[in-house]
Amino acid sequence: MVCSRVPLLPHRPLVERFPSIKKMQTKSLATPRFSPIPISYRQSCPISYKPTLVIRCHAVESSRTSDSISYPPESDLFVSPAVSSGKTGAYPGGMGLHTGRDPSVKKPEWLRQRAPQGEKFARLQDSLSRLKLNTVCVEAQCPNIGECWNGGGGAGGEGDGIATATIMLLGDTCTRGCRFCAVKTSRNPAPPDTMEPENTAAAIASWGVDYVVLTSVDRDDLPDGGSGHFAQTVKALKTLKPKILVECLTSDFQGDLAAVYKLVHSGLDVFAHNIETVKRLQRIVRDPRAGYEQSLSVLKYAKHCKEGMVTKSSIMLGLGESDDEVKETMADLRAIGVDILTLGQYLQPTPLHLTVKEYVTPEKFSFWRDYGESIGFSYVASGPLVRSSYRAGELFVKNYLSGKKDENAACN
């Protein structure tokens, strides 16, 4: 609808209605003299209003015109240059140099899981929701969520054991952006919940479990990387339930050994930190703030700053690593005294994440288990669906720690 009091202006090109634009066209982009913000122009006009001119444009070479600019079809926006040019290599179809789906690599049958269901699963899901607790099971899209939350036995609720879940502290948003991880990221996540340590401890104590895994997102925005918050949770849990066994799967705290010391001496039983992949692939797989040597230094310090501390790490397979590189990584972990190792298949959460280069067979995982135990690891959990906090591994660690405590008691 047009107001009758305002006469319509005859259509004229902008350069005629606003002479300053014509002047601007003659200026070189190399020596701009015009502000990029909206500019108001006063001009004699049959009506009394002050028109505001807003110019939005793409910066292009002066020799090019808008008619010569071509844009790709919407369907081609997520096609890698190799595919669009017809130069398809070993891993086409990506959304970047290291990401995207590889149509030639099909997910094998041994990785197919039923959707989680069952009464125990639903009960634990409801409990976690009511208590507003985050779990790595959900945030990282773990394929074993049905088995663990049902107490073992499978995703359908056939388990007859105690349900387990890995609690994620310090919120659900990470300050790092590793290319394999499905956890959401932000440079400035919300501040930690000051009541989380007490609430988490009370919730876990009420579940009646005797082994729990606590983990967290990376919080590089905090002075100690969240180590103090972690330590408060362990202390609160040990106060409510002194005999519970606590495993902490931590970040590297940016190599801050004082933060590592604080957590190791909080009362935890297992210090876990994942090296994730072999040395050559670190910069491709992990955030640049993480690193192979930094992870080794954190694990080494945790092992030696408290007598009897059990340490644990994990390696993902299927990212393009060679057998010799895996052996080298396992040897480096053993050289600093790591006791427990888990190996599992990397699964791509979305096309925006790292491409799966290989689906490692169950037989090969069995080989790595035997090899790891032959070079001195106390326990190796190795399988396509094994994860760093894996229920079967937790049961072994519980028995392993109980055995160590019995040995120490006998010696005393």
Automatic annotation (TrEMBL):
One of its GO terms (biological process) is protein lipoylation. InterPro entries: Aldolase_TIM, Elp3/MiaA/NifB-like_rSAM, LIAS_N, Lipoyl_synth, Lipoyl_synth_chlpt, rSAM, rSAM_sf. Its main location: plastid. [4Fe-4S] cluster 2 binds at residues 174, 178, 181. Keywords: 4Fe-4S, Chloroplast, Iron, Iron-sulfur, Metal-binding, Plastid, S-adenosyl-L-methionine, Transferase. Belongs to the radical SAM superfamily. Lipoyl synthase family. CDD domains: Radical_SAM. This is Lipoyl synthase, chloroplastic. HAMAP family: Lipoyl_synth, Lipoyl_synth_plantC. [4Fe-4S] cluster 1 binds at residues 137, 142, 148, 389. It comes from Vanilla planifolia. Pathway: Protein modification; protein lipoylation via endogenous pathway; protein N(6)-(lipoyl)lysine from octanoyl-[acyl-carrier-protein]: step 2/2. Binds 2 [4Fe-4S] clusters per subunit. One cluster is coordinated with 3 cysteines and an exchangeable S-adenosyl-L-methionine. NCBIfam families: lipA (TIGR00510), PRK05481.1 (NF004019), PRK12928.1 (NF009544).
